[in-house]
Amino acid sequence: MAALLQHAGYEEERLLRVAQQMPCREVQAGMLLSLMGQPQQYSYPSIFIYGHRASGKSHVMHVLLKELELPHATVSCVECVSVALLFEQVLLSFFGCDAASLLPRSPSLSDFVRIYRQQCSQSPAKQTRYIVMEKAELLRDTDANLLPALLRLQELVEDNVTIILLSEIVWDKFRPNTGCFEPLLLHFPDYSKGELQQILSQDRHPSYTAEFYSSYINILLGVFYSVCRDLRELRHLAALNFSKFCEPLAEGKVKETDTHKLWRNIEPHLKKAMQTVYLREVSSLQWEQMQQMEEKESGALRGLSAHTHVELPYYSKFLLIAAYLASYNPARTDKRFFLKVDRFNFTPKNLLNHLLGPKPFPLDRLLAIFYSVVDNRVAPTASIFSQISSLVTLQLLTQVSHDDQLDAPKYKCAVSMDFICAISRTVNFDIVKYLYDFL
Amino acid sequence: EDHFTNGCEGADNSEIRFKLCQDLWHKIRADTEVLQDELNRKILDSLLDFTRKCSSTRQHSDWASQMRASEIPTAALVLGVNVPDHDMTFQSLSELLQQSVTPHVASVQAKECGALKHLMKRVLERLMDTVVTVDDEEEEETEQTSTQLHKSVHCSLSTLCDWYNAKTMKSKTGTPGKKRSSPVRDDPQQPPVVIIFKDLEAFNPKVLQDFILICSRYVERLPLMFIFGIATSPSTIQHMLPHSVSSLLCIELFQSLSCTQHLATVIDKLILTPQFPFKLNGKVMQVLMSIFLYHDFSVRNFIKGVQLALLEHFHSQPLSVLCCKKKEALLNVMQLSHHDLESIRHLLSFRRYVEKQEPQEQLNLFRDDTHLKEVCQKLIKDLRKYHKNYYPVLRCLHTLTSSLPRYPLGKQVRELHLICLEKNVWENEDYQTAMKLLKMLAKDELIASLQRCVEILQPVKSKKMKKALVELEELLAKFKQLDINSSWANITLAPRSHLSPPESQTLNEVCYYSSSATVRRHLNATPRTSIQAALSSPYYYLQNESLKTEDGTVSNAAPDICIAYKLHLECGRLINLYDWLEAYATVVSAAEGNNPDSDNVRKVEEVKHARFIQAVSELEFLGFIKSTKQKTDHVARLTWGGC
């Protein structure tokens, strides 16, 4: 397999080490290496690598550049809240902090190019320099000229430099409509089940044999492969459940080779993990505690979504109910519900409004409904209005119109049917009777 | 203090009253703070444990925790919707953290972190105590000046990492001896960096996600930790963060005490105790309670309300000089001026007291100041005794009735307290049903609750209570011998002598603050109503005789805006501006006494026109109308109703 990675200009030994560190990615790495050429040769100006989460993009790049000791700068685009940070990090890792401090405040792209050229004339590149940009999809949101300029940075700075963009999105979504230099595209496909098995088996527990761990991974994949193919997530799950898997072994009930018994022991456990830890209902720390006190049957630990009960002040509840009614009832039906005349019979519309989701409503409609649902007379005090805005900050209501718009603000109700039913039960209000969809 | 003295009723003793008021308030505030600290203790302690545990597991290097190392430990702290109260909790939390776990604590609020770089900047600033530069045009000037003072740093987490390493290295070289001498403390070399998000709901989800993503890149080098302050329910985390982000966190849940329980304790310790001489009467209590339950759930605001009542009481009631500790009060009685004594004589409760006395005594009370002072001393002592007896008996009654089905006298002590404040509790219907239910109670339950009553009465020192206690114990003994019928009278009679409402007590005005309307007006403002009142009856605020009219009409001489307002009430949803102007001109010229048909009218029209436009734009400013595009020359009304 190391044969794939043979390449002129690099030591055999190093290439071997590289190959060991990235199982199942030899093809891509070989491809990359041939694109990069020998260290002193000029390389292609920009390379675009895409593939799903945890398909080894960053890992491969990192290992290659590190092990082959090539000059490089790795930048995560999430972190670069401004372009200045990006420029600074690049200059810092190529030329040291003196160069980075030359950048003016809020530098422009041309400042960056100027300083880069100035620096590289002092210390010209003997080897290709690489700039790796992780999460490159965020570059689309920055200045329009940044991405095209980075793609042909080699021309601009007249240096042997290559930009490598890593992204989860295909290149077609990047292409600016003004056109730009086309990078070389390279796809990292998802790992197959066998590959996952091979990779996961590598981080085995030091006190158990490799075969034992790999049989564990086999069982784990059997349960989780259908729902999750994310390598990181699987690795996490493997780590969490391994101690449980070893339990019968420690008690001396079974031998390491008795896979079937081990499987019988762990399978229900993994199923449970799928419903809790995998969804992050329960944190991994709590999961471990749960495993320890399994015998006592800990029913006390409930997931995050189990806690949905929210206590609200009395009028806030009614405001929320009014908001819900305003969001899900058509405005023309208000008269029928809230005027004290006998109701018309109208045909139900089969949950139409609930399927469409909440609709925005103006403030005065909310208050009109509020005053007709709340049973006693309420003065329109300042605190009623402040409750509306505190409901907005609690994200139970959302403001649809812009913040600056003072007159006639519009809101939407952001709570679910179950939630509002629970709320109205606490104030003895039969909300279903007032909902157009349920008549 | 000047404000207090100015416009104060009975200025001569205002200084004493101010001092009393301040002392009392300081005491109340100190007590509530202690109380709140105690209430929060449990949850804060568990949070501290959590942070300690997290920082210590980080140092372990066994296989399992290494596999988990990339997760950021996170505490989700559910605090309830009473947002105003949270500040104090977070304050004490960060103080405690700084004292016992780590010096690196930063707390951020949503409103200061609109964008990722602002959040980053705040976090770095608070952790490193330096000014961080963000390339932001609007802050240019402030930064230029600050760069000279501080060493400015670039805003990224790698800077923070370097800083943290430098810091920990320094402490390592600085205190090498300490480490060996105190191995009990869990590794002071690697204190975690705690970031507190005070109001998670208000954060922009995108900003938070990016921030967590960035942090997770650095978590290996930097022992980060988050604390989320959540007001609604923990499921908001799932609403805000996608799976890819929340999988980077290791979330543990902490639930704080509910605010109703919190309030119950505060009332228990603050109101239902003879310790503080200042009291609230039933209506004021009711107002404060309803603000709490109906509007904000905020204990802090409740205490603010008590403070307001306190201030108002000392400000407006000259006799409040007697509202203090027993000895001081007795002293102050002796120093009352003739004027004060006159006002005592006018007190409703005092007059009732006088009417019960002999004619000779009545004369004495009205003529002789020194005699009156003596009587006052006696009355104040009586009032204190009444309070001393009232609260224990109240609690007894509560323990007896709170376990009854359907809670005829309320679930909480405060409800019973309100009933008692209003009128004689034994005349209440609910009281009768409660007593009936009590008779039907099983014997062992009754004995248990009576036993609790005994426990309540035990620490009380007054004579009457001692007697009651003895009686109760006898009763208990009788119950145990199945002798029920004979002793019923006792139970039902006991409250009568002690739970009479405070209004029946002489000199209650000294201690009880009764102006519920003031409290309501100050705490539960109604801006809309005031504006409408001002517009529809300007006399109410301007106090100008010429504006006085019968209700519903506006005099012609009223300000322009009032006339315009009055006229616009007669219109529908859309108002024709020209018709409005015509009507306005007619009213105004009638006020000036001109004949509307004369030629003069045309000339003045321009002035009137201008006045009208001003009135209309004022109405627009107040939010009664707005311009509309539905119809030319029309404006839309924004309020309903009218004549």
Spatial extent as radius of gyration of chain B: 34 Å
Instruction: State the end-to-end CA separation of chain B.
Output: 47 Å
Low-confidence stretches of chain B: 133-152, 173-188
Residue share in β-strands of chain B: 5-15%
**Residue share in helices of chain A?**
40-55%
Helix fraction of chain B by DSSP (H/I, runs of at least 4): 55-70%
Strands side by side in the biggest sheet of chain A: 2-3-4-1-5
The overall strand count of chain A is 8
Number of helices of chain B: 30
Indicate the radius of gyration of chain A in whole angstroms. Answer: 31 Å
Number of discrete helical segments of chain A: 19
- What's the story with the biggest beta sheet of chain B? 5 strands, parallel
Q: What is the helix/strand order of chain A? A: HHEHEHHHEHHEEHHHHHHHHEHHEEH
**Percent of residues of chain A in beta strands?**
5-15%
Structural notes for this entry:
- The complex is a heterodimer of chains A (439) and B (643).
- Chain A is an alpha/beta fold.
- Chain A has 19 helices and eight strands.
- Chain A has helices spanning 12-21, 26-36, 57-67, 83-95, 97-101, 109-122, 146-151, 153-157, 193-200, 210-224, 231-251, 259-275, 284-292, 314-328, 334-338, 352-356, 363-373, 382-393, 417-426, and strands spanning 46-50, 72-76, 129-134, 161-167, 184-187, 361-362, 397-399, 410-413.
- Mean pLDDT of chain A is 78; it is low at 294-301.
- With 643 residues, chain B is an alpha/beta fold.
- Helix content of chain B is 61%, strand content 7%.
- In chain B, the strands form four sheets. Chain B has a five-stranded parallel beta sheet with strand order 2-5-6-1-7, with helices on both faces. A three-stranded antiparallel beta sheet of chain B has the order 10-12-11. Chain B has a two-stranded parallel sheet with strand order 3-4.
- In chain B, strand 11 (625-627) and strand 12 form a beta hairpin.
- Chain B starts with a helix and ends in a 6-residue tail after the last strand.
- Mean pLDDT of chain B is 74; it is low at 133-152 and 173-188.
- The chains are: A alpha/beta (439), B alpha/beta (643).
- Chains A and B meet through helix 4, helix 11, helix 13, helix 14 and helix 18 of A and helix 3, strand 1, helix 5, helix 9 and helix 10 of B.
